[in-house]
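Why do we care about 3D structure at all? Because function follows from shape, and shape follows, mostly, from sequence. That is the central idea of this module. The next example makes it concrete: a single protein chain, its amino acid sequence, and then its structure expressed as tokens.
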Amino acid sequence: MESEYIGVVLGIMLAISGGLITFIASNWWRDVLAEAEHQYDVYSPSPFFRFVLPFVQMVGRRLDGGKTVQGFRNTLATRLVHAGKSLVISPGEFIGYMLAWGGVFGGGFLLLWSLALGGAPAPGAILIIVLLFSYVPLFILSKRVKVRQQSIRKILPYTLDLLCLAVEAGLDFTAALNRIGENLRDSPLGEEFRMLGQDLTMGKTRPEALRDMEKRIGLEELTAVVSALVQADELGASLGPALRIQSEELQRQRFQRAEKKAMQAPVFMLLPMVGCIFPIVFMVIFTPIVLQIIDIMGAL
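And the structure:
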């Protein structure tokens, strides 16, 4: 009787403790999401990212302050800067996001594998699958970097034309940047121009601000533009002619890239032609011949 009473009391105490822990954890989770709502929604508004956000922040606090995987974190920091997300998520937090992605989706894939095949895969296969799923966010980040750089590369020559016209019309460099940044509100280059104007307003020298913008974008075409502007600023020359020359050079490079892709188009068309069109043509040509041969062999 006493053992049953003690069991009931322990069960009640465990239920109360579990309820309190769940309540505290849910409040902490909600506070974390509310605190980071505006910041992290800029990076990824997906429900999965919001669900694993506390784990991501916990891993980020452990990694960002230490020397663990320093080289990989430096690589991630560079990619996040080029993607325009360095102020939103830190390298350590991104590693936490990779771990969460690999654990959740890799674990789900392994669970489906086990249910379908009736047994767990080998430990080596488990490790490889989890690592592959963990690197999916890194592939997505690299894709974002390429898309952002491609968008900037496409609009850069015409933006330099506008900047040249604004400078030659009498506007100073900072005012011209702010005006163009307002017109390019939805473009990554417009965002970079606004940041460049803010850096100049806060007291940075023009060469320093231009070099910082070059590092944030990481585009080869922009290196020559920044070098020409820095040289013109050091020599005291007008920025208008330098901007016009660089704009013409970028347009020439763009036309060359277009011509190169046009020349590569026949090569890329060979694969679908050989794999899809030629077999059908061969079937249409040789099927009657094969049927006639079969009829003749049958008659003999």
